[in-house]
Task: structure prediction
Amino acid sequence: MEIKTYFFRGREVLVDGEGEAAEAEALAAFPGAFRFTDPLTGCTGVELPAAAGAPGGQHFLPVPAYFFSHGDAENARLSRVKGLTLWRSRTRFCPACGQELRPHPVENALECPACGQLQFPRIEPCIITLVSRGDEILLLRNIKDREGIYACLAGFVEMGETLEQAVRREVREETGLEIKDIRYAGSQAWPFPDQLMAGFYAEYAGGEIVIQQSEVRDARWFRRDALPPLPRPGSIAWRLINNCLQSGDQ
Ligand SMILES: [Zn+2]
Result:
């Protein structure tokens, strides 16, 4: 397994002129930065402040763009190191008693020396859904989107919910629509900071679109042959849409 050092600045990763993750030698440019070495992969993550500049010949690339140009094994490695580095850099004190945490000798966890509580890396389950109605698919433009991109409907799973219940609730909350035939369609780790996306297809069952204005700028049915700008390849949203278009019968 390849051992690498990744330099993260927010949602960006430092790359060289060829778009590959910067070499460990770049550490010299960031002497005080937080760093974490993952015992499983041997890879190191370095968390850089927002004001950090790129050393000569290197630049910061948004992680989704990095994903676009790399394969599953590299993306999984980077995701793991990114998620764990961020978690470790932000989980320093016991939430029960306030003591400084220390690495657990065996588990991938942090341990409180005073009260013994363990802190594990946090993973937030989310659902993402592509709803179909005959020859049309439902796509939404997020309230934060500035690029005119329409994507699948997504949201966090709430305590006590099944994934399917979360799909049904999110579709109802964000668009006012009812759905049926919810089918699991794969998942993607998105640890920026800590999401696990579970993908689904569903069929329209009833209702008119009424958008949730705090979350959604626009939601529409699009014919499969007349689609708006879509999320970039590498995301599960793109995969859901693309697989749906390829198969033609989802
Ligand atoms: Zn404690």
Residues 94, 96-97, 99, 112, 114-115, 117 surround zinc ion (CB under 6 Å). Helices lie at 63-68, 72-90, 163-175, 236-247. The mean pLDDT is 92. The radius of gyration is 21 Å.
